[in-house]
Amino acid sequence: MNLKSVVCILVVCFGFYTQAQPTNNRSFGINGQNGWPGANGIDGAAGPQISVQATGEFADYDIRGKNGTDGTPGTNGQHATNCVQPGKVPFHLYGAHGGSGGSGGDGGRGGDGGMATIFYQNEFDLKNIRIDAMGGLSGRPAPGGFSGQGCQCAEPTWLAYECWWETMPDGTMARRCEFLRYYCYNGRNGFNGYNGVSRGDGQWGSVALVQGQNSIQPSLTRADIRISQILTTQITLAYNKWSIQKGAQSLLAPSSRVSDNYEKFEGRKLFPVIFQWTAPRPLQDFASDMISLSLKQDQVRALLPENIWSDIRSTVDEYKNTIFTISKIVRESELFDLEVYFTGVNKNTLLIIKDHAGVSDSVNTTFNMHLEADTLFNKNLFKGPLPERFIKRFADRIEIEIGKMDIKDKYLNSGEALILDLTVQRSLGEKSKVQRYEYEQTLIP
Description:
The protein has three domains: 3-185, no CATH class; 216-244 and 263-331, no CATH class; 335-442, Immunoglobulin-like, CATH 2.60.40. It has helices spanning 3-14, 248-251, and strands at 18-19, 25-28, 49-54, 59-62, 92-95, 115-120, 129-132, 157-167, 173-185, 206-211, 222-226, 235-246, 261-277, 290-296, 299-303, 308-316, 322-331, 338-343, 350-355, 364-373, 379-385, 391-393, 397-400, 417-428, 431-442. The chain is mostly beta strands. The protein has two helices and 25 strands. Strands 3, 6, 10, 12, 13, 16 and 17 form a seven-stranded mixed beta sheet that branches. Strands 1, 2, 5, 8 and 9 form a five-stranded mixed beta sheet that branches. A hairpin with a 2-residue loop joins β24 (417-428) and β25 (431-442).
């Protein structure tokens, strides 16, 4: 009996073996593909909106919402394939996994019932009006697909005899042999797909009741108008006032299917708008520009384009007219069409800000100035906000009386050079913008 036979007897008869390390593993088979999800059902269309007259004769109106369509099932996950387990290999084995089933499609939501506006003179005529505004039914949800099966182990465990070389403590190589135990692990089955859900039935539609009229105009809460038309066009914003009441089913024919809440017309509220133009600029300079009017919480608001600055104020007179007065208006592009230069000497020295657009009488203008004499060390003459007493304003220019400021005459003599760093801030209404000018000039009479 040789050594190998003795070792075999010890392993088989007495269980002398070593379990292989779990890191030494491989898989077998091919994973099954997952199933495809089912398509969701299509939501049902809402019922129509109609207007009807209650004349006393029986009339039947069908404004039901449409049913949603059914979802489609998810497809099944595929079984793992090529599930032949290799025999007595020197490594652990893991079976391939089965595919998961696809989720089922949701049922489409039922469409909401429509809305009927009923015009009537006598309330008892409503009893001859039958309205079916039932919501559509939800489509049926579809089931998810079934799971696929993973590869199964034909032989759960086995022994394999292995030899290898090891380095001994003295540095020599020694051959070592052992029986190692290996295991096979079944592949995981996939998961069943989720079933679809119902998105719900549509809501029942409703009615709106208008007594004493055959029609009503729609609400008008927004309007755009050209500036060229604001003085000649009558503008009136309006909204229809409704109250929410209960008991619609008791007012209509007994077999009606509508929401019990209904809207009752209470009247139309008007907001006439008048414009006044008091700006120094002619209206025709802005003839093609638009003003947007909006009505919110019983207040009319006027909004000009972003690139137009204005002082526009509103009042409400005793006749409930909203009056907008435009007293100042400029284009943003005109604000800084400025030219800066000095003129005069000594007490007559002026800093001129020439306004080529001629809007200085329409906007508020403030200045922050740093003025230096062009000397060896650039003598500081003034720094800070300009006091109003030194500023004269005209439509086409602004004059700053440098000669009247607390500056020694020697720095304002003819031939002296001044260095200017001027920050100009222009504002109108809620808008404001700043621009900086740097300039250097030699004074001349």
